[in-house]
């Protein structure tokens, strides 16, 4: 039985790409979070809606069923950074899910800049879970494999040791 799960939300595909890479290397089960209402993917509406929801900590409705994580000991949580913090769908998932008995690793994808507030919010919403680490990636894709290899290998090594 697999003890590692990867839960991710992805708007543009960068986070999904990274989550799939990690799942393949770790042999982990992969779960995607989907909001009931999709976000715009272009222009001002994308930045306004996503930034507003993340900044205001809006609890967005998520499609059911949510991932059932009872049998997993280690969970990697992957999210894009919105308005310098955790995406609203991932934050909503964290608020609805008891991860207190899990070992967590936080992964954030962004276009640059800091992910510090994103990781702080994830940790606070994780309600006492053990945090193994955190890692930030800048727009991971098939074109950035060489650049991202060291980070991916480091995460896999750490998670496999647990």
Summed up, what is this model?
The protein has 162 residues and is an alpha/beta fold. It has helices spanning 14-26, 43-55, 88-96, 116-125, 145-161, and strands spanning 4-8, 29-32, 74-82, 85-86, 103-110, 130-138.
Write the layout of secondary structure elements.
Blueprint: E1 4-8, H1 14-26, E2 29-32, H2 43-55, E3 74-82, E4 85-86, H3 88-96, E5 103-110, H4 116-125, E6 130-138, H5 145-161
Parallel strand pairs: 1-2, 1-3, 3-5, 5-6
Antiparallel strand pairs: 3-4
Helix pairs in contact: 1-5
Overview features:
162 residues, 23% strand, alpha/beta, globular, Rossmann fold
Structure description:
Helices cover 38% and strands 23% of the residues. It has one domain (4-161): Flavodoxin domain (Rossmann fold, 3-Layer(aba) Sandwich). The protein is an alpha/beta fold. The mean pLDDT is 94. It has helices at residues 14-26, 43-55, 88-96, 116-125, 145-161, and strands spanning 4-8, 29-32, 74-82, 85-86, 103-110, 130-138.
């Amino acid at each position: 039985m697999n003890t590692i799960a990867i839960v991710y939300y992805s708007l543009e595909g960068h986070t999904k790409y990274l989550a799939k890479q990690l799942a393949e290397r770790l042999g982990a089960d992969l779960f995607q979070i989907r909001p009931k209402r999709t976000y715009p993917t272009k222009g001002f509406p994308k930045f306004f809606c996503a930034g507003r929801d993340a900044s205001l900590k809006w609890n967005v409705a998520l499609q059911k069923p949510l991932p059932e994580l009872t049998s997993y000991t280690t969970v990697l949580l992957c999210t894009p950074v919105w308005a310098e913090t955790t995406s609203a769908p991932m934050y909503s998932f964290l608020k609805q899910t008891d991860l207190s008995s899990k070992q967590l690793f936080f992964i954030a994808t962004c276009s640059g800049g800091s992910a510090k507030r994103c990781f702080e919010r994830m940790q606070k919403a994780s309600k006492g879970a053990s945090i193994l680490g955190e890692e930030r990636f800048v727009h991971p894709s098939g074109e950035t494999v060489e650049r991202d290899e060291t980070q991916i290998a480091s995460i896999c090594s750490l998670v496999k040791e647990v």
